[in-house]
Amino acid sequence: MALVSKDIDSAFDGAGAKPGLEIWCVENLRLVPLPTSLHGRFYSGSAYIVLNTVLLKNGSPLHEIHYWLGKDANEVESALASDKALELDAALGSCTVQYREVQGQETEKFLSYFKPCIIPSEGVYLSQLGQLDSNTYKVSLLKCKGDHVVSVKEVPFSRSSLNHNDVFILDTASKIFLFSGCNSSIQERAKALEVVQYVKENKHGGKCEVATIEDGKFVGDSDVGEFWSFFGGYAPIPRDIAFDVQKECDTSPVQLSWITTQGKLCPKASNSLNKEMLDSNKCYMLDGGAEIFVWMGRNTSLTERKMSISVIEDFLRNQGRSTATHLTFLTEGLETSLFRSFFESWPQVEPNLYEEGRGKVAAIFKKQGYEVKELPDAEDCQPYINCQGKLKVWRVDGDELILVPAQEQIKLFSGDCYVVQYTYAGDGRDENLFYAWLGRASALEDRADAITHMTAIADSTKGDPVLARVMQDKEPLQLLLIFQTVIILKGGLSKRYRTFIAENGILDETYEEGKPALFRVQGTSPSSMQAIQVDQVSSSLNSSYCYILQTGRSTLTWMGNLSSTIDHDLLDRMLELINPTWQPISVREGSEPDIFWEALGGKTEYPREQEIKQHIEDPHLFAFMFADGDFKVKEIYNFTQDDLTTEDVLLLDCHEEIYVWIGCHANVKSKQQALMFGLNFLENAQLVGGLSIETPIYVVTEGKEPLFFTRFFEWDSSKANMLGNSFERKLAILKGKKPILDIPIISSRKASCRETTPDNSRSNSVSSNGRGSSLSNTSSVSGSKSKSANNHLFSGPTPIARMLFPGSPDGSAGSPQAEAKSPPDANLMQVDSSITTANTLTYPYSRLIVGSSDPATDIDVTRREAYLSDEEFLEKFGMMRKAFYQFAKWRQNKLKLSLQLF
C-alpha cells in the first residue's frame, strides 16, 4: 500500500521510533497524546489508540495497534479511532496487526500491557481537567476474572452481583475485602490479590487493611461479619445457572467473505479454506465465531481498508453479535497463528514480507534523529552453565545401558541412542543435567528405551535434575558446549539397528577406521565444534563449510569458498582429533585434483550460495489447559517470572528449543509425562509458528531452573523457592510477611539412596576434552521389558512411542516383552509391603489409568497399580504382585508407564 503523508495524522509523527507504549485519546474529534503517567487510566466515555512497540532479537521493531472503545463512547469518536488506527498502521509501513478492544471484553494481549489491571473510570477524558478531590469515599464492588491476566469490571454494589465462580473485591474507605467464590481457582485468587495491591496503593496511598473472605465461611470471623454487613447481613448466594451460550459461537461454521468496493459482503462457498482464496487486491472477512478477522491485501488502498472496517462493524451491529466478539485486522504477510489455523494449508514464508517497508520507516526515523538499532552481527554463543564439569555417556542397547569409555564419549553413531549425564558445580551444590540423544537412523524401540533409562537415572539422583530429549542434527547449543567436540558417525552398534538393516537388506555403513568417509566440519569455536559423517558424494559438499575426505589411501581437506578462517582452524583441530596420524592434502574449492572427485563418485552440483542465518525468534510462553484427558495451550503475553505460577505447567517456546516448566503444585508428577506435553505441543506447532517435531525439549521444575532457562526472564532467585500455593505466597507478601523459602520436590517416587548412576557408583567421568579423571571399564545395566500397550496419554491415534520418537527407520511402535535378566540394584530396589498387604480399596483398571474418563479420586496417584485386584494385576503385569515389587523402582516405573499407570 502506498504511503501518502497527507493521509497520516500529524499526531503520529515519530510514533513507534522507541520501544514501549504510546497512547492517544480521541478528544473533540482530534487525537491527544497521553503522558506516561496516565497510561493505564481509561475513561468509559472515551476512545483510545494504543501502540505497543517491541524491539525484537533480530533488531527490527514489532508494532501492534489496539483501539479501545469505552462502553459509553459515542459512535463518531469510536469510528474515528478505528480510522486513525489504520492511518497509524500506514505510517509504520503497513506492517502491524490491529485489534479492536471493547471495554470489559479486552484481549489478554491488551491487558498484559497494563499489569496488574485496568479499572476504567466513569466519564470522559479531558486533557485540561485537573485532579478532582472528594470528601466521601465511594464504596465499589469489582469482579475479577483471569488466571494470568485479570479482567476487572465494576459491578453493581449488590448481593446479587456475587457468585460462586468469580473473585470479587469490595473496596471501602478503611478496608479492602477479597471474596473468593468457592468455584474460583487458586490462580484467579492470586491474580485478584495483585488487584487488591493495586487498589491499596493507588486509591488508599498504601494505607488500609486487607481481609480475605472465603465463599461459605460465615461463622466466628470478624472480617466475615464486617464484609456481609455491607450487604445487610449474611444470606446464601444462589446456585449459579448453568450457562452454555459460550459454545454457541464454536459450533457455527467458519465463513470467508469478500468485501466489495461497494461495501457488500460476498460469501465464498467452500468446505475448506486455503491461502490461494485470498487476493492481494481485495479485503476479506473471516468469521470464526468468537473471532472475526479482516484480511487486507497488500495492494489495497487506505480508503478501501477504512471502508472495510466500517462494513464489518455495521455487520456486527446488524447481526446483534456479542460485544465479546474480538475483531482483528491483518495485512497480507502478517497473519497471526490463530488466523492461519482456520486454513487447511498455509505455506511457510520467509519473514518478513514487510522488511522493505520497515526499512523505509527506519530510514525516516533516523533522518528525524531517532535512534534505530541495526540487526545484530552474531548469534549469542556464550555458555550459561559451568562447562568444565563431569560427563558420563551410556549407549542404549535394548534394555541394557553400555557405559561408553571416556576416550570414546565424543563419538556418537547415528544408528544408536545415548543417555548423557552432565554434573557441574551449581550454587553451593552439584547439579545434574540429563540428555537422551536419539540418532537419526536409530530404532524406535531404542528411542523409547533411551527416554525410560534417562528418567530412571534422573529419578535416582538428587535435586530434580533437568531432562532433555534431543534429535541428531537438532542439538541445542548448550549440549554442544558441554561436549565441546562431537563426532557423529554413520551406522550403529545396537542389536536392534543391526537386526533392522539385516532384515531389510540395507548396506551396513557403520564407520570403521581406514574405511572411506566424508566428514563435514562445523562449529562456532574450539569449545563447540562438530564433525558429521555425510554421504560420500559430491552433492554433500557446501561452499559454506570445510570437509575431511578419507579415501582409504589418502586424506584430503576441502575448504569451501564461503568458509571463514575460524572454519579453517576448526578443520585442523578436528583432523587431529579424528586421526592425528593423517597427513592431509589441502584442497581449495575450485582447484580440486581428479582423485578428489573420483573418491566422491564424480563431480555434480552442490550448494554454492551463502547460507542465510535462521531468523531469530523472540521467546513465547504458553500455559497448558487440561480438560477431559486432553489439553490446549494459551499464550501468555508480555510474560515475566511472576507468570510461572506454581499450580501450572507452562511451555517456553524459544524456537531453537522448548522448555516444559512444572510448578511444584502442578498436577503433573512425571517428567516423562511432561516430555509428552512438549511433543504434543510440537505436533500442533503450526498454530504457534511451525516448529519442527524434532525441536529439543527440556523439562525443568520450579526452584531448579538452570541459568540457560532463567536468562529469558528478569530473574529474582528469592521468588524461586517460596512455600505455599500462589495465593498463599502473594497474600504473605501483601501483608508484609517475609516469604518462607522451601526446596520443592516434584516427584514422590525418588529413591532415598545417595546420588547414583546405573553402574551403582558416583559419576567421576569426563569427556575426552581433558576435564577430570577417566571412567572405569565399560559396564552395563539390565532393565526390564514390558508388553507393548496401545494406550496413550492424549486423545488421538498416535501411540506414545511414535509421538516421542518421530522418523524411526522401521516406523513401528511397541516395546519389549517383560522379563527379568538380573537381580535389581539394591540401592534402587523398594519392596512396598504396606501396599501388598494393607490396601483394601480396589478399582477396575479403566478407572486407574492416566487420563481415565472416570478416574478414581481417593487414591495415591503415585501407586495406581496398588488398587488393582490380584486377578487384574496378574492379567496386566503378567506376574504376581510380590514379584513386581522386588524389581528396582525404575523398572517398576517402566512397566507402569507401558500400562498407563505412571
In short:
By secondary structure, the chain is an alpha+beta fold. Helix content is 23%, strand content 22%.
- Got a strand count? 33
Question: Given the C-alpha coordinates, what overall shape results?
Answer: globular
Main sheet, how many strands, which sense, barrel? Answer: 11 strands, mixed
Strand order of the largest sheet: 29-28-30-31-32-21-20-19-16-17-33
Global structural class = alpha+beta
Helix content: 10-25%
**How many angstroms does the end-to-end distance come to?**
57 Å
Give the C-alpha Rg: 31 Å
Can you count the helices?
22
Mean pLDDT: 81
Strand content: 15-25%
Which regions have little confidence, pLDDT < 50, spanning 5+ residues?
A: 130-134, 242-250, 350-356, 373-379, 742-838
